[in-house]
Amino acid sequence: MLVDRSDSRPLHQQVAQALRKQILDHDLPPGAPLPSEAELSTRFGVARSVVRQAMAALASDGLVIRSQGRPTLVAQPAEYRRLVQRATGLFDQFASRGQDLRTTVLGLRADEPPPAARAFLRTSEALRLERVRLVDGEVLSYVRTWLPAERVPGLRADQLTDASLHRLLTEVYGLRPVRGRRQVRAVAADDALAATLHAGAGDPLLLLEGETTDQHERPLEWFAAWHRADRVVFDIDVSETAAETVRMDTPAPTATPAGADLDRARALLDELRRVLG
């Protein structure tokens, strides 16, 4: 398992990525001790200082626990849960459970929406809102939302820092999100998403796409939210008389360099299938 010295990535990143994959694949289960610095140095063919840098990166990501004079242990994964069939947003769901969800706004600007969003919103004049959501300093998701510009005049990015979009729409614009459709799929992180979510390129992500209408049945938002699959669990309420229907579709495999990671990501949806019986 020697590092590839022809790779443009720094050696410590290669070591960290290899160990991160073992942890996420549960080859190194939660609570298991990692090999010593000396053993990892020999295994990867690098200096101990490189191993220490890799361990620091894994600890920063919350994947391992380091203690002075004790073996480094694989951390128990922190999982955050959201209900995918509720019109309420992530901010309000977390607040109802006493969890402090933080929001960083990456951008808000006028832009032409993609075809699916344009078809739902029935306009090409839209606002593109990009946000990152965090809990306890950990990045959970990156969200891209499209809003019909004429319905939210004067909307500013600073209004949405550490705030709920749905609550603002209700209180400021009198637009209450009521219902819509949601779709979950498994995808592999590209370089841009990996950098934003502090994940590795090719890591599995859960993509939640949705469209929401207001109390007047008018289109209000279209969004795509990429979640770290190692930190977020999607919950679905089911009952014998449930009015809503949740359909699970697995896209046909495609030829892609991240194919193996994508297959691993699709396997994450098995839990949802078991919930649905």
Describe the protein in words:
It holds the Pfam family UTRA. Keywords: DNA-binding, Transcription, Transcription regulation. It comes from Prauserella endophytica. This is GntR family transcriptional regulator. This protein is α+β, with helices and mostly antiparallel strands and 277 residues long. Helix content is 29%, strand content 27%. It has nine helices and ten strands. The protein has a six-stranded antiparallel beta sheet. The protein has a two-stranded antiparallel ribbon with strand order 1-2. Strands 3-10 form a two-stranded parallel sheet. Strand 8 and strand 9 form a beta hairpin.
Characterize the largest beta sheet: strand count, sense, and whether it forms a barrel.
6 strands, antiparallel
Number of strands: 10
Radius of gyration: 21 Å
Looking at how many chains there are and whether they match, the oligomeric state comes to single chain
Q: Helix-strand pattern, N to C?
A: HHHEEEHEHEEHEHEEEHH
Task: Give the rounded overall mean pLDDT.
Answer: 82
Provide the spatial order of strands within the biggest beta sheet: 4-5-6-9-8-7
Helical amount = 25-40%
Shape: elongated
Low-confidence stretches: 242-258
Estimate what percentage of residues fall within beta strands: 25-35%
Number of helices: 9
**Class of secondary structure makeup:** alpha+beta
Separation of the first and last Cα atoms: 41 Å
Pfam families: GntR, UTRA
Keywords: DNA-binding, Transcription, Transcription regulation
Organism: Prauserella endophytica
Protein name: GntR family transcriptional regulator
